[in-house]
Design goal:
4 helices, about 65% helix, mainly alpha
Length: about 80
C-alpha cells in the first residue's frame, strides 16, 4: 500500500495563509494529475476556489497540460 500524498494539504495551507503566489508556483510544478485533482477537491470543500479565481484557473490549466499526451519525449 502506498502512502497518501501530503502535497495537496500543504498547498491548501499556503492558500489559507494568504500566499496564493507561492501556491500557484507549486501548482505549476505539481507532481501528478492525481495530486492536482486532490487539491481541487480540498479547495472545493473549503470554498477557496471562488475566493481565489487565479488558483482555480492555474489548477485547471495544469490538469489539462499534465493529462495531454506528450508530443515528444526526451531521450
Amino acid at each position: 500500500m502506498s502512502r497518501p500524498s501530503v502535497w495537496a494539504p500543504k498547498i491548501v495551507a499556503l492558500i489559507k495563509g494568504g500566499n496564493s503566489s507561492a501556491a500557484i508556483a507549486q501548482i505549476k510544478v505539481a507532481p501528478t494529475v492525481k495530486d492536482l485533482q486532490d487539491l481541487r477537491k480540498l479547495l472545493m470543500a473549503a470554498n477557496l476556489l471562488k475566493a481565489n479565481p487565479n488558483v482555480d484557473a492555474v489548477s485547471n490549466d495544469m490538469i489539462a497540460e499534465l493529462s495531454a499526451p506528450r508530443l515528444h519525449r526526451s531521450p
